[in-house]
Amino acid sequence: MKIETQLSANSDIMHFFTESGFPVANSMEFTNQKSLRRSPLAENIFDLGGIKSIVITPDCLSVTKEPQTTWEDLKPQILAEIMDILSSGEIAASIEKQKNLDDIIANISGLIDARIRPAIRNDGGDIIFHSFVDGIVYVELQGKCVGCPYSQQTLKEGVERLLKTYIKEVVSVEKYEK
């Protein structure tokens, strides 16, 4: 497998190019532990140490290193990680998992917008979708729903029941805590 590298004008950024590219539909950026869960390749590269961020596009993988780290140390290790992941097919499985998650989130948002939000707005409130993590939908109730003694009942008997009925991946609905 041939991998070409190119140092950016910013000497802390290096681009990695493969003949076949990277199996991602859009640009994906990784800067923290939460974002790393979406990519085994990004996680393995971050585990090398001295990495600030990673961007993966269909054409290129760009790594931004910490200023004190040298490319002489990092580059061979990053090349090995790219070869290992691309030859194993693991990144394709990760991308498919993320695509499925994106579809679930789109379905949750669509159902909230179409069926739940209008009912809550009729009572002077609103509902904001925040996230979907491990089967749990996190939402925030706003307007007259804030402080309402029935807000927990609305979440569990209304929102949760409807989402679980239509989206099998939903396990529960919880109040988003800032």
Sum up the structure in keywords:
about 180 residues, alpha+beta, GMP Synthetase, Chain A, domain 3, 5-stranded antiparallel beta sheet, elongated
Characterization of this structure:
The structure is a single chain. With 178 residues, this protein is α+β, with helices and mostly antiparallel strands. The chain folds into 2 domains: 86 residues, Scaffold protein Nfu/NifU, N-terminal domain (Ribosomal Protein S8, Chain: A, domain 1, 2-Layer Sandwich), CATH 3.30.1370; 79 residues, GMP Synthetase, Chain A, domain 3 (2-Layer Sandwich), CATH 3.30.300. Helices cover 44% and strands 26% of the residues. It is built from 5 helices and 8 strands; from the N terminus they run βββααββααββαβ. The strands form 2 sheets. Strands 1-2-5-4-3 form a 5-stranded antiparallel β-sheet. A 3-stranded mixed β-sheet has the order 6-7-8, with helices on one face. A hairpin with a 5-residue loop joins strand 1 and strand 2. Helix 2 runs antiparallel to helix 3 and helix 4 crosses helix 5. The protein is elongated, with a radius of gyration of 21 Å. The termini are far apart. 21% of the residues are buried. The mean pLDDT is 88.
Low-confidence stretches: none
Q: What is the total number of structural domains?
A: 2
Name the CATH architecture of the largest domain. Answer: 2-Layer Sandwich
Q: Give the oligomer, counting copies of the same chain as homo and different chains as hetero.
A: single chain
Number of separate strands: 8
Helix-strand category:
alpha+beta
Task: Let me know the CATH homologous superfamily of the largest domain.
Answer: Scaffold protein Nfu/NifU, N-terminal domain
> What kind of sheet is the major sheet?
5 strands, antiparallel
Order of helices and strands: EEEHHEEHHEEHE
Q: State the end-to-end CA separation.
A: 46 Å
As a percent range, the share of helical residues equals 40-55%
